[in-house]
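Chaperone SurA (Candidatus Seongchinamella marina), 425 aa
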Amino acid sequence: MNIKAMLLGTCLTASALATGLARAETQMLDQVVAVVEDDIIMASELRERMTSVTENISTRGVEMPPEDVLIRETLDRLILESIQMQKGARVGVRISDTQLNGAMQRVAAQNGLSPDQFRMALEQQGQSYQVMREQIRKELIIQRVQQGNVNQRIEITEQEVENFLATEEGQKLTQPEYQIMHALLAVSPGAPAAEVERAEAYVTRLLEEISAGAPFDKVVSAPGPYNFTGGNLGWRKLDDLPSLFSDVAPELSKGKTTLVKSDSGFHLVHMADRRGGEDMMVSQTKVRHILVKPSEIMTDGQAKALVTSLKARAENGEDFADLAREYSEDIGSAQEGGDLGWTDPGQMVPEFEQTMQITAVGEISDPVKSQFGWHVLEVLDRRDEDMTDTATKNMAMNYLHNRKYQEELDAWLRQIRDEAFVDIK
């Protein structure tokens, strides 16, 4: 497996097409091939990129474009990378080692390797692990620069979302998806009635076993008087299912199996899993809090003692909202009396959420520490809210955003290339 070539195909978007830059017999000293704003591109850098992408083209087995086209396109890619890296440096885009380690682990996993195996594979192919890390760091910086600049160019209105959801494409996007397994006991249309009855009795008995908890795949593959055909249909939307299954899928809950008769025979239809298309009820909590942060003039113990005293004052009759306005260091909620409004599961940091969940309505919690400091919180109310419509609109919004992103990215890249000072030597 050529790790470098695979990485260039799956991770490094800057590498597209290339071939050898210089003929083998030509030897020259390194020289500047382009000045890009405050940066320069050296001939050695261009040669290295050309070598890499040539390997990528060879690995993919596609036809090699003409040499002059490859050189021009590869240099253009390097120029665009340089412009974007300089933009990132100016606004302080940084990729931490933790983020980079996570990216390296994902790339290793894409190649079916552990991080250690990935490092060894690179070394065996004569590649530097550290060089690869820096290549991926550069790619992540460019991705952030692109997202930061392109996302602000994309505007999607509520009307666009409504119009999209009214289209056939929008309706299909929001359809539920089903993962169906089925097993067919084939019976010819002209089979004697007695044979049909025996087959039906057999599949009915198997259905009873499955309904009692026996695994579907084991039951239909076990030795018996009949052989089944079929398998897993994979994830499919309702419109993509054969009519035989689309008729029963909406009513079949996860883990359940039903028996369907057709001209082909008897089908055991099993709902392995399903997602989307159902009412999304979310348990929300209305809460307010007071936050006190440890600092150079207040130790952690003093911060805890202060919120403990504020809890006692609120329980003794002082208004919680007034105490929050005076003492809370959460600038987003202090002026609102500490009110955080209705919160969804997972919206708050774990320590806060755990305390919120075990605090009864109308009660004030014990002090709890999070990454932000010490909190005391009051649960005002709880409710179950139907978020189905919101989730559907968010799905459509994300779809429309992704559809517009590449178009806007291409336009932005052309713009920054046109605006940049570039001197090709």
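The longest strand covers residues 373-386. Residues 154-174+387-425 form one domain. ok done for today
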